[in-house]
Write a structure and sequence with these properties.
The complex is a heterodimer.
Chain A (H helix, E strand, L loop, with lengths): L20 H15 L2 H24 L8 H25 L7 H23 L4 H19 L14 H36 L12 H27 L7 H22 L5 H29 L1
Helix pairs in contact in A: 2-3, 2-5, 3-4, 4-5, 4-6, 5-6, 6-7, 6-9, 7-8, 8-9
Chain B lengths: L1 E8 L5 H7 L3 H15 L3 E6 L3 E8 L6 H12 L9 E4 L2 H10 L11 H15 L5 H20 L9 H13 L6 E5 L3 H11 L5 E6 L2 H11 L2 E4 L3 H5 L4 E4 L10 H8 L7 E5 L16 E5 H36 L26
Parallel strand pairs in B: 5-6, 5-8, 6-7, 8-9, 9-10
Antiparallel strand pairs in B: 1-3, 1-4, 2-3
Helix pairs in contact in B: 4-6, 4-12, 5-6, 6-12, 7-8, 7-12
The chains are: A mainly alpha, B alpha/beta.
Chain lengths: ~300, ~350
């Protein structure tokens, strides 16, 4: 019996005796994407867009192709639009602000980072910030994908606690500000290193001045702390308190950044140390988010 | 329709020769009209700068106008005008040459941007005097488009090519806006003044001058619009300055880490940029170890300038590709009857695109 006509073009891909691994992965991956829920598809799509931004940055850096740095801004804007749509659909599914799982948290955090980048980058005209922000967003979204999509919500939904939603959402926006401060800190440390060691790379001319970057770091830390403070205040109104571990982590992160801001205000920290601490604090904050998830899963 | 470029530049003649052929702005239109009348060409643009005098002409039969061109220069500049110092390019080399000129590739400092404005002014003058028509309009407008493309797609004009401009560029990358910076000059010599004026060209207005001779300090301060202080009082000023330029005649370092450490600890957030252009150096090298202090001496500034010049040389290749593409595009539009041996005519000289980059 002859194979149906439709099989002929697929024959090279269906050689079960000698399967081509790359083609098999491509087929399975594509099929997986196509049968995924729409919000998950949009997360994958936005991750791909940010991945393209990282790739474009890499090409420009290697001087293989002279892409304008503003190319990053448009890619991040496109990725942000897809992210926003996906988050909205996710929110519709869970019936609340989509911050119910670790994957949601990373997704929301990357959304906040993209949103703040477009605000700060445009307001302060921090050139090249997109080139440094895109990889962070891409990594966070990859983390969200690796964390896996939670099972579909079934059964009756509980009425959302608005104070809990406000606490979670504002905390993530604050983390977004801290993330952007981390990005600005990396840019500052790079530019400062070049100036200090008198070794100027091609990035030197495109990176902003160290004074401007230091100013952006300070502002983002202050705003982030202010927003996180609002988030903790919102937690007071929660009907059912979050578990003690989450509360302890939130307060710890708040104390860490409050200490940074105080030291900054009393001029006890130079910009170099502030930048390093800003990077360390954000990495710590993201690790605590993951750590809380691990502990919760272990407890369950 | 042919397009010819005849001229003399810093590549072919020293300044004492070039200055004889320079055409002043106010007489350029008259010169161009006279040229067109004498030679019978249809269109003409005269570009006269400190480094070149070039005439771009277009007409249905430029080859026939060659004797007229020679007699024009003889009548204008004398029978013994140095014809061997003049070069002549016919199309398409003339078009490529114009593109290279406006992109700054033929300039003393490769990638400089001033020439573009000068050529635009020359073209605007010729256009306003009715000396251009379809051919030169097309070519010059395309040249300006090429200059813009080269600037956006390459890094030909990136980086400082001199010690003074390197210092200004570094200051820009430390402070951003220089208009709010305070500068302290230690030493009232030529080097200090030159560096200070470079910074002033970027917006610096607040200057303090100190020197062993208070009179010289006061004189320089008055010339720069700043104020002077006695040499012993420089430490009192350091806490409030952003840029320190040192160029004294001292044989030992005047500024040490011990001097600046207590000052820096009270102004951690405010960077200090130290430019030491003295030999022997005025600022101890370990000053660079202080947080938020950036120290550059004459060697490091020269190294940055050399690096930029080298980088611009590398960018020439990419610029060459862009220019070649555009010349080809113009050639398709422009029907050229290339005369035999129409490549650049300059006895004993290589073609322009292979000319060594000026230091």
């Amino acid at each position: 019996m002859q194979d149906p006509q439709i099989i002929y073009p697929l024959r090279p891909y269906l050689r079960l005796s000698h399967p081509d691994p790359v083609r098999v992965i491509a087929i399975v991956g594509t099929a997986g994407i196509l049968v995924s829920p729409m919000d998950w598809m949009l997360l994958i799509l936005s991750t791909a867009i940010f991945g393209l931004a990282v790739f474009a940055t890499g090409l420009s850096s290697l001087r293989l192709r002279r892409l304008p740095w503003r190319f990053n801004f448009w890619l991040i804007l496109a990725g942000f639009a897809v992210q926003s749509t996906g988050l909205w659909l996710r929110g519709q599914e869970v019936g609340r602000c989509p911050l119910t799982t670790f994957s949601d948290v990373l997704w929301f955090l990357s959304w906040a980072l993209a949103c703040l980048y477009m605000l700060v980058g445009a307001t302060y005209r921090v050139s090249l910030m997109g080139a440094f922000t895109a990889p962070v967003i891409f990594l966070l979204q990859c983390g969200a994908l690796l964390a896996g999509r939670p099972p579909a919500v079934s059964g009756p939904r509980q009425a959302p606690d608005l104070w809990l939603e406000l606490h979670a959402a504002t905390s993530m926006v604050a983390y977004g500000a801290f993330g952007l401060a981390c990005v600005a800190s990396v840019m500052f440390l790079l530019q400062q290193w070049q100036l200090k060691h008198r070794t100027l790379s091609f990035l030197f001319f495109d990176l902003p001045s160290v004074s401007k970057l230091a100013d952006v770091i300070r502002r983002l830390l202050v705003w982030g702390l202010a927003i996180l403070s609002l988030g903790l205040l919102a937690a007071i109104g929660i009907h059912e308190w979050p578990d003690r571990l989450k509360l302890a982590v939130a307060v710890t992160v708040w104390c860490l950044y409050a200490l940074l801001v105080v030291l900054m205000r009393v001029h006890a920290l130079g910009p170099v140390r502030l930048a390093w601490l800003s990077v360390a604090a954000f990495v710590f904050s993201v690790l605590t988010l993951w750590g809380v998830t691990v502990v919760e899963r272990g407890a369950l | 329709m042919n397009v010819v470029c005849i001229g003399v530049s810093h590549h072919t003649a020293p300044v004492e020769i070039r200055e004889k052929f320079a055409v002043a702005d106010f007489s350029a239109a008259e010169f161009a009209r006279e040229f067109r009348q004498s030679t019978g060409v249809a269109e003409v643009v005269v570009v006269s700068t400190c480094n070149r005098v070039e005439i771009y002409a277009s007409g249905p039969d430029i080859r026939a106008a060659t004797p007229a061109l020679d007699s024009f220069f003889q009548s204008r500049f004398g029978a013994d005008y140095p014809a061997d110092l003049f070069y002549r390019h016919d199309a398409p080399e003339s078009i490529g040459h114009l593109f290279e000129v406006v992109c700054g590739l033929d300039s003393m400092v490769v990638g400089e941007t001033e020439i573009l404005g000068q050529v635009k002014d020359a073209y605007a003058m010729a256009c306003g005097a009715g000396l251009t028509s379809r051919t030169l309009n097309k070519i010059f407008q395309r040249a300006f488009h090429v200059a813009k493309a080269v600037r956006t797609k390459t890094r030909i004009n990136r980086g400082a090519t001199s010690v003074g401009s390197a210092a200004v560029e570094l200051a820009g990358k430390i402070f951003g806006d220089l208009a709010t910076c305070k500068v302290l000059l230690m030493g009232a010599g030529e080097n200090s003044e030159r560096t200070a004026r470079n910074l002033m060209s970027r917006g610096v207005t607040d200057l303090i001058v100190t020197n062993r001779s208070l009179e010289r300090a006061a004189r320089l301060a008055a010339a720069l619009g700043g104020r002077s202080v006695a040499i012993d009082a420089w430490q009192a000023e350091v806490h409030d300055i952003d840029i320190l330029i040192a160029s004294t005649a001292s044989s030992e370092p005047v500024v040490t880490k011990a001097h600046l450490q207590p000052v820096i600890s009270k102004r951690l957030e405010r960077p200090l940029f130290c430019i030491d252009i003295a030999v022997p150096r005025d600022i101890a090298d370990d000053v660079n170890e202080l947080e938020n202090v950036y120290l550059y001496d004459i060697d490091s500034l020269e190294a940055i300038a050399r690096q930029s010049i080298e980088a611009r040389r590398t960018e020439r290749l990419l610029c060459g590709h862009i220019i070649s593409e555009q010349v080809a595009a113009v050639r398709q539009w422009l029907v050229v009857a290339a005369p035999s041996g129409s490549a650049s005519e300059r006895v004993g000289s290589p073609t322009l695109r292979q000319k060594p980059v000026p230091e």
